[in-house]
Amino acid sequence: MTDRNERVRLAIYSALAATGRLPSATTLAEETGLSDSELDEAMDELAAARHLVFGDEHEIVLAHPFATRNFAFSVMGDRTLWWGGCAWDAFAIPNLVPDEPAALVATTCPACGTAHSWTVTRDGPPVGTQVAHFLTPMAHVWDDVVHACENQRIFCDESCVDRWLTDTGNERGAVFDLATLWRLASNWYTGRLGTPYRRREPKEAAEYFASVGLIGPFWGNAP
Fold first, then answer.
1. Of 63, 84, 104, which residue constitutes the final position of a domain?
2. Could you report the per-residue pLDDT of 170-179, keeping only the tens digit for each?
């Protein structure tokens, strides 16, 4: 990544971590020393490198684990309220943001609408009998990352997963408990608020998934 793009990436991520909101164009220009056209070019390149995700109107909707619109997860710290980009991202935020080591993560079951919330900390998984269901295999997440994130959800239990699959006609993805979700989220974004940041390569990602107990074709690490 170029120094210019890394400055822009860090400024965007730092603002989202601190406030839950994107920096204004003026603030971003002041912090990076770049012109509007240079910022636009940098953000396009960051999106191409999968550090940012644009919506239909070329606006930033995801800078994982942060979202700029509702993806069905709110994350409330003592001073900051975030949108989590998915179940994975929502559980990751209190593990990543240094000044907010505990947060209330809230969502609703996609099948029945039951509200759920957990206090998520860095100390260990929250208590709960709910289950996570990820629809899209890891190898295909970036085919349509917004759709993939919208379908990384938490359900009351496996019967609600089955009901939702029947109602939507989707095929079953990966189902796992909250403890596994927390382990997946706890260190996935380590270093993202620092600089320089390097994304995991696919082999490294597959090894990380295995280290938290997620193994098989869905995760790209079948024995």
1. 63
2. 999 999 999 9
What CATH code is carried by the domain that includes residue 36? 1.10.10.10
b/e 85-119 (16+ beta carbons within 10 angstroms → b)? bbbbbbbbbbbbbeebeebebbbbbbbeeeeeebe
Same domain, 83 and 118: yes
Opening angle at CA 22, ends 36 and 120, nearest 5 = 155
Query: CA 69 to CA 82: how far, in whole Å?
Result: 9
b/e for 133-147, b at 16 or more Cβ within 10 A? bbbbbbeebeeebbe
Of 215, 210, 213, 13, nearest in space to 125 by CA: 213
Nearest to 163 by CA among 114, 112, 116: 112
Q: Is the pTM of this model over 0.85?
A: yes
Q: Do 197 and 90 fall within a single domain?
A: yes
Separation between Cα atoms, residue 198 and residue 51, nearest integer Å: 10
Show the domain range for 179. 67-219
